[in-house]
Amino acid sequence: xxxxxxxxxxxxxxxxxxxxxxxxxxxxxxxxxxxxxxxxxxxxxxxxxxxxxxxxxxxxxxxxxxxxx
Length: 69
Hints:
Radius of gyration: 19 Å
Helix content: under 10%
Structural class: mainly beta
Strand order of the largest sheet: 1-2-3
Oligomer: single chain
Low-confidence stretches: none
Distance between the termini: 37 Å
Strand content: 15-25%
């Protein structure tokens, strides 16, 4: 769901912002702000989203024989 249009405004995902460190973003419009901040000039940039890590496959209960042809 990285490219959906109804994203909650957040400076970390804005076109105008760039990360300084883990908690701060430098904004073209507002200067240095917190990454969870927001303003009315928010424009969503889907390329700045970090996708969720994929879940690990369930491997318990299998033997090597289960994977042989």
